[in-house]
Amino acid sequence: MTRKRILLAKMGLDCHDTGIITVAAMLRDAGHEVIYIGLHNSAEQVVKVVVEEGVDAVGISFLSGQHMTQVRRLLERMRAEDIEVPVFCGGVIPSDDAAALQALGVSDVFTPGTLTGEVRKRIDRAMAGATA
Amino acid sequence: MNAPVDRNAPRDHEEQIFETGAGIPIEEVYGPEAIESFDATRDLGAPGEYPFTRGPYAGMYRSRIWTRRFQVGFGSPEETNERIKYLAANGANGFVITIDLPTSYGFDSDDPLADGEVGVTGVAISTLEDMEALYAGFSPTQLSYALSIRPPVSSVTLAMLACVARRLGVDFKDVIGTQQNDPFYQMSGGPLQTITQFFPLEGTLRLCIDNIDYISNNLPRLNWMVTNGYNLRETGVNAIQDGAFTLGHAFDIFRLARKRGLDINVFPRRASFFLSASIDFFEEIAKFRAMRRLYARTMREEFGSTNPECWRLRFSVQSAGNTLTTQQPRVNMVRAGVEAMAAVFGGAQSIHLCSYDEGHGLPTEESSRMALRTQQVIAYESGITKTVDPLAGSYYVESLTNRMEKEIGGKLTDIGERGGMVACIRDGWLESEINAARIKNQHDIDSSRRVLVGVNRFQVSPEEDPPIHIHKIRADEWGERRTAMLRRYRAERDHARWAEAMSRIDAAWRNGDNMVPVLMDALENKVTMGEAHEAMRKAQRWSFR
């Protein structure tokens, strides 16, 4: 496995951060460099960091039902800037919405109870696919 | 003796670990030696008497079954009110009103920051008329609402409640309910950023004390929640940390109130706590009993309160959302049942159970009804309510209660040496404790050290897991309707009176007045939630935009 740079962020007004803090630790333990930019980010703010830091993947976490609105905006913004890095979502996301997010272009959706090994494997796979 | 356990070794599934969730070792059997120095008079007392180990009231559930709270709140106040009418007819007698995120931060539904979030996690409340609509058909003297809110926003909702009571012509002395007033843990316990991003911290603390002052002088039956220990526990800390951080926070708020000149024999009378009942059954029961005893001792001995009403810790409980699983969601009903029983044996005044589908989305009508029915089975069928504190005198329960009291007390001393809980939050110590706990929990689940049925043991394939009905949100529709409503509201109000009320907020803030009556005046002059916050931010010469 090669060391990657992964940006993690919360978007919108949601402030449940247990999941994202835990995932950050999982990915750091796996040898990746994780940039976590905290809560309440807009699509513009996320994209700015993606560009400035040249990250290999982006992970966004949601618990309070704003995933469709925020992800749609983020992907539009990324497309407008011609950025092609895999985007992951995690959190309390109903299965219909998870499928809809993937149809929009999200690489993978992690729901509660996904064990560490599984998260690492799926993220590595998507990042390998993106660079291949 | 147990052999030492290597915490990092992968677990054999049938190998059990004999310790509580917080790591207190559990013996094979407990006998009289476990509680050698136990003195029933000193350590238990009678229910409703110092040190309140057996419960805050004599008679407990024989006199009155706990309040079965129902969580409700979505979309507009009118829609939420319709739901409350339906649920009240179905046997719920108290409501936790959840608020949408824009309102939780003091933004109106038409604020650009509210885009996509209006009515999603709860009801949107932007005007006094919104609060009136929420109470339509009910009086705040009849039906108990607990709004999930915190300062600064809770000062505005408190002012709204007082205005609704005044408009209905009811006596303030008869108004019931719970005013949540925890400045720190409310926003899911998490990072300091949630508290400081949209309002200055000093201003938030001032409004917290303004609320306590106003309630204790004007609304003697209204509870005010001093600590939201629930949201704190949900971050993943253990039962000992939960007890210590919850009480430590309350004692700090009491110190601030006393510094303002409020009377320690008066203002804590209606203070209440919101606590989590997690899955480790006996540890949770011991936590509740130990917290009551510690609180009583601290209030009497340290704060020197001479009013027994100020010694008794009263709390509402919610079952632990963080013990629910997304996998095999119906199993969550069993978890909630176990947690509810821990709350009952622990002496809770009010209980709200999580719905089984919360790992998938926001609760549906059907899943919330199941949660209420679970409580009703315990309350009306199981018989466990029919004598007070039935576990008292159990070698194990009393020994664990003593141990929890000692552990929580020790951590409280630690917190005191660090300058108190507010200082611990400000300097990031709490956040680092929380983050360490989260990572440990994940390791424990990954290694199966902690068994999670359906997640790391007893899994089924997704195909075998029957689908459940999911709550649908209509954020775009709610946002548009509320935006149109607020546009009309602003266009139709008397602008001159509105402007005067706004400037009175500014003057009162700078003057250090209690803001609650000032906000009541503003609301009557059609100042909105968002505008009131903007005026208070401006008065502090502070802006985040």
Strand order of the largest sheet of chain B: 1-2-3-4-5-6-7-8
Q: Could you tell me the radius of gyration of chain B in angstroms?
A: 23 Å
Looking at CATH, the homologous superfamily of chain B is Methylmalonyl-CoA mutase
* Global structural class of chain B: alpha/beta
As for the number of domains of chain B, it is 1
Counted beta strands of chain B:
8
Mean pLDDT of chain A: 93
Q: Average pLDDT value of chain B?
A: 93
Helix count, DSSP H or I runs of 4 or more residues of chain A? 5
Gross morphology of chain B is globular
At the third CATH level, what is the topology name of chain B? TIM Barrel
For the largest interface, the chains and their residue counts are: A-B, 31 and 46 residues
Question: So, CATH architecture of chain B?
Answer: Alpha-Beta Barrel
Strand order of the largest sheet of chain A: 2-1-3-4-5
- Written as H for each helix and E for each strand, in order along the chain, the element string of chain B is HHEHEHHEHEHHEHHEHEHEHHHHHHHH
Describe the structure.
The complex is a heterodimer of chains A (132) and B (545). Chain A is of the alpha/beta class and 132 residues long. Chain A has one domain: Rossmann fold. Chain A has helices spanning 18-29, 43-53, 67-80, 95-104, 116-131, and strands at 5-10, 33-36, 57-62, 87-91, 108-110. In chain A, strands 2-1-3-4-5 form a five-stranded parallel β-sheet, with helices on both faces. In chain A, α2 crosses α3 (67-80). The two termini of chain A are 14 Å apart. In chain A, 52% of the residues are buried. Chain B is globular. Chain B has helices at residues 40-44, 60-63, 77-89, 101-104, 128-134, 153-168, 193-196, 201-218, 229-234, 239-259, 281-302, 331-346, 365-380, 395-417, 421-426, 429-446, 475-492, 495-511, 515-524, 529-539; strands spanning 67-72, 94-97, 144-147, 178-180, 223-228, 271-277, 315-319, 350-352. The longest helix of chain B is centred in the last third of the chain and has 23 residues, at 395-417. The model of chain B has no long low-confidence stretch (mean pLDDT 93). Chain B is an alpha/beta fold and 545 residues long. Helix content of chain B is 47%, strand content 7%. In chain B, α10 packs across α14, α12 (331-346) crosses α13 and α18 (495-511) packs antiparallel against α19. In chain B, α3 (77-89) links the parallel β1 and β2. Chains A and B meet through α1 and α3 of A and α4 and α16 of B.
